[in-house]
């Protein structure tokens, strides 16, 4: 069984006896970074009555990462600045054309031969993709469980996920890397799952794939993620405990058996924060913070009633309405939000303000990811034109972009720019296309995703272009 947070103290003591110098330095570092938590064994996973905890304290994890990598803060600030600018221009209007995104996922499954269950089946991983596509498009069956007062805030994110079908070398893939490892458990503190020399697996280009590592995560932790940076870091992704994947298969934890740990963790990759603000149970306006969303009620949950643990999130599945120190009257706090810690069966919504934040991320630091074509298999038609290439750049683009064409022989060519709603925006025809570069301009069009179809009688290629200003 998983050791649970309480046993972490034993490990820390053993480590102390073995490597006193290291631990003294580590404790010193924690005192500098987290003075308020210096008495705790693990400041990023505060103590809980429960054996498992959904996620890390994300705000402190960000500080932890910035402490380890001093350059990260500037990249994180650049991403936040870009997202804030987008939100200022678009966030409150909500009248922009709604972009439809398809994001390719690659699962890195790290399994140790001593624990065969770690080798999650492809079928179970496909079920996880289906969970994501239901939850992120609000077609999950339990939308009927969203309480009436919260229904007006609930929304689809209009995002689809796929298992990647083309790997970084342009070859067909299942979207799953199974890597046998000698490592028996993985910690968030050294990001081992992402590091081959610690038994992990190397990231696929985060500009083209959403990377999710599945492994025996230690400490009773079900998952952790990184907020986006600009540019994206080569560790960008989520790490998930192997017993909390999908909604069918090996799922021994009844509270976490519907695949919503990954729904939650991808929320962080889209820059969503925990509704209680990771502030230790305080309320906004009284020294606390929140998630930046007006439509998720203020939450502190400083209760210690089994649902609250005294430091913010909600565990289990309380009866609705559930009030706390920050939302004292009905409808209380939104423990049904996917960014909570409550049981999978109790979660059923994202809100419109969360959608605005995610849209800012997808139009900002993640804009290049949504142009990825890795959801499409390497096609036979592309093999047929193996000695041809089409390059669309810059991508993302503020509006003006180029289509560079190299063909095996001089040929007539059609270029068509199509919106996500299927409308043809621009067309261009050319003879003797080989070696030419064509300029197109979407400056007058709304931001968002467009398709560029390049074709003639022999072939057809569709590229994505993201317009972001
Ligand atoms: Zn979280």
Features:
469 residues; alpha/beta; Collagenase (Catalytic Domain); 6-stranded mixed β-sheet; 8 helices; disordered N terminus; binds zinc ion
What do these coordinates show?
With 469 residues, this protein is α/β, with parallel strands linked by helices. The protein folds into 3 domains: 4-37, no CATH class; 49-378, Collagenase (Catalytic Domain); 380-467, Immunoglobulin-like. It is built from 8 helices and 13 strands. The strands form 3 sheets. Strands 1, 2, 3, 4, 5 and 6 form a 6-stranded mixed beta sheet that branches. It has a 4-stranded antiparallel beta sheet with strand order 10-9-12-13, with no helix packed on it. The chain has a 3-stranded antiparallel beta sheet with strand order 7-8-11, with no helix packed on it. Strand 12 (448-455) and strand 13 (460-467) form a beta hairpin. Zinc ion is lined by residues 54-55, 58, 264, 268, 274.
How would you summarize the topology of this molecule?
Layout: H1 4-18, H2 20-33, H3 58-68, H4 72-91, E1 101-111, H5 122-135, E2 159-163, E3 176-180, E4 210-215, E5 223-225, E6 237-241, H6 260-269, H7 352-363, H8 380-384, E7 389-393, E8 400-406, E9 413-419, E10 424-430, E11 437-441, E12 448-455, E13 460-467
Parallel strand pairs: 1-2, 1-3, 1-4, 4-6
Antiparallel strand pairs: 5-6, 7-8, 8-11, 9-10, 9-12, 12-13
């Amino acid at each position: 069984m998983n050791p649970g947070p309480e046993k972490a103290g034993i490990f820390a003591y053993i480590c102390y006896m073995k490597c006193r110098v290291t631990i003294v330095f580590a404790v010193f570092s924690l005192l500098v970074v987290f003075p308020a938590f210096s008495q705790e064994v693990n400041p990023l996973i505060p103590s809980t009555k429960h054996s498992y905890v959904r996620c890390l304290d994300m705000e402190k994890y960000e500080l932890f990462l910035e402490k380890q990598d001093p350059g990260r803060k500037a990249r994180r600030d650049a991403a936040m600045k870009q997202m804030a600018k987008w939100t200022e221009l678009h966030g409150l209007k909500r009248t922009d054309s709604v972009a439809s995104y398809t994001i390719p996922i690659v699962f890195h499954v790290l399994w140790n031969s001593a624990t065969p269950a770690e080798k999650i089946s492809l079928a179970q991983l496909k079920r996880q993709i289906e969970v994501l596509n239901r939850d992120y498009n609000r077609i999950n069956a339990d939308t009927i469980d969203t309480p009436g007062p919260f229904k007006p805030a609930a929304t689809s994110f209009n995002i689809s996920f796929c298992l990647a079908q083309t790997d970084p070398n342009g070859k067909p893939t299942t979207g799953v890397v199974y890597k046998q490892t000698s490592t028996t458990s993985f910690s968030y503190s050294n990001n081992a799952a992402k590091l081959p020399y610690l038994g992990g697996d190397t990231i696929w280009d985060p500009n083209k794939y959403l990377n999710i590592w599945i492994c025996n995560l230690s400490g009773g932790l079900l998952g952790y993620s990184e907020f986006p940076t600009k540019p994206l870091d080569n560790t960008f992704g989520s790490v998930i405990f192997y017993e909390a994947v999908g909604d069918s298969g090996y799922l021994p934890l009844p509270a976490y058996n519907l695949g919503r740990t990954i729904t939650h963790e991808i929320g962080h990759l889209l820059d969503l924060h925990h509704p209680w603000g990771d502030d230790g149970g305080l309320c906004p306006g009284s020294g606390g913070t929140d998630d930046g969303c007006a439509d998720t009620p203020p939450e502190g949950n400083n209760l210690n009633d089994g649902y609250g643990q005294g430091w913010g999130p909600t565990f289990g599945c309380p009866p609705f309405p559930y009030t706390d120190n920050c939302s004292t009257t009905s409808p209380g706090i939104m423990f049904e939000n996917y960014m909570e810690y409550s049981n999978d069966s109790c979660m059923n919504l994202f809100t419109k303000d969360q959608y605005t934040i995610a849209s800012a991320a997808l139009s900002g630091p993640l804009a290049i990811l949504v142009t990825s074509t890795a959801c499409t298999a390497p096609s036979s038609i592309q093999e047929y034109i193996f000695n041809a290439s089409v390059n669309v750049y810059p991508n993302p683009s503020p509006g003006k972009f180029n289509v560079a064409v190299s063909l095996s022989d001089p040929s007539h060519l059609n270029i068509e720019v199509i919106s996500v709603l299927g409308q043809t925006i621009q067309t261009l025809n050319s003879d003797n296309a080989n070696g030419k570069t064509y300029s197109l301009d979407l400056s007058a069009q709304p931001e968002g995703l467009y398709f560029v179809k390049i074709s003639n009688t022999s072939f057809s290629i569709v590229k994505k272009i993201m317009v972001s200003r």
